[in-house]
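Colleagues,

For the teaching module next term, I've prepared a clean inverse folding example: a structure given as tokens, and then the sequence designed for it. I'd like students to try predicting residues themselves before seeing the answer, so please don't circulate the second half yet.
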């Protein structure tokens, strides 16, 4: 990527987008346009020296305005969250297809050269994720298609649309499949938070209110892999600057149960809590892990930050937020408050 040419980051007021804009600036990119639905002041991160724009990219005109003069697009905008959100907001998640559709059309017509679409491990077939001792998912396991209902279908459809824009119009596309990204400067409350942030918040709440209890969704034996944000951002640049254009896993292969996740956070906090398992809460698939064979072979990428180290950084940031009186502004923005 030419550092002097304009780069567009959509979803820039969100978790991954905010960290990506910061890294673009660190790497010397001179012309960065950052766009998000949320009003300025409620972004997770706002950076000086960047064109920060609040716009609804579900609207076609907003996408065409955002793509004006742009050479490279990182399309990370989506209406999404953790399992508590995507299992109860399937229609909202599906409507995000408007963002990718309109951004692809605008990129084609505005002469954009490079386009990255942030996909998800939720595209993988549910039948391959029924056992906590799951076989790590390879890229071809997305087909025959039976992804996560709502959110997963939108991501899989948008992957195909990217492929056909490349075939029909010559737009250079890249499609990372994110696997449970976590870290500081992300939502930890309000219903959109993912498991690592939710567990950190619950452990902190148990310390602060003195209950000594934590609620765990499901029996806690469901498994996942979680990828620290710094590794994710490094992987994004590797993918965008490569010649590899097929969907590719961008995740950690360090499998852990949700109970194990709680163990780690309890260790960081120096507490031991009584566990209350809520078997009626959203749980998602029984097991999911990333097979990194392809990205290691093609790009030489592998996560460098362990779950234990990443969780400590995440816990410390959330603890500081919760004990300083700070509010999860982006979560409040989504709730309309």
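(Answer key — instructors only)
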């Amino acid at each position: 990527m030419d550092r002097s040419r304009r780069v567009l980051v959509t979803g820039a007021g969100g978790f991954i987008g905010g960290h990506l804009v910061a890294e673009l600036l660190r790497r010397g990119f001179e012309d960065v346009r950052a766009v998000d639905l949320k009003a300025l002041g409620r972004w997770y991160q706002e950076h000086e020296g960047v064109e920060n724009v609040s716009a609804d990219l579900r609207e076609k005109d907003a996408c065409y305005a955002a793509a004006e003069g742009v050479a490279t697009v990182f399309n990370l905008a989506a209406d999404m969250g953790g399992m508590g959100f995507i299992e109860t907001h399937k229609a909202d998640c599906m409507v995000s297809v408007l963002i990718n559709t309109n951004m692809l059309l605008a990129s084609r017509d505005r002469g954009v050269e490079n386009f990255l679409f942030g996909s998800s491990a939720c595209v993988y077939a549910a039948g391959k994720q029924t056992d906590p001792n799951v076989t790590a998912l390879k890229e071809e396991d997305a087909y025959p298609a039976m992804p996560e209902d709502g959110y997963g279908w939108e991501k899989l459809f948008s992957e195909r649309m990217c492929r056909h824009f490349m075939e029909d119009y010559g737009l250079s596309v890249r499609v990372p499949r994110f696997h449970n990204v976590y870290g500081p400067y992300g939502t930890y409350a309000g219903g959109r938070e993912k498991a690592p942030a939710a567990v950190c918040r619950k452990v902190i709440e148990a310390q602060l209110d003195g209950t000594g209890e934590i609620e765990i969704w499901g029996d806690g034996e469901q498994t996942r892999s979680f990828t620290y944000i710094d590794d994710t951002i490094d992987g994004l640049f590797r993918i965008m600057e490569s010649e590899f254009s097929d969907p590719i896993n961008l995740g950690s292969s360090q499998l852990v149960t949700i109970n194990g996740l709680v163990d780690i956070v309890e260790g960081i906090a120096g507490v031991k809590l009584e566990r209350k398992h809520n078997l009626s809460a959203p749980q998602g698939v029984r097991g999911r892990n990333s097979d990194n064979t392809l990205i290691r072979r093609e790009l030489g990428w592998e996560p460098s930050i362990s779950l234990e180290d990443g969780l400590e950084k995440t816990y410390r940031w959330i603890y500081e937020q919760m004990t300083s009186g700070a509010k999860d502004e982006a979560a409040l923005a989504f709730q309309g408050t």
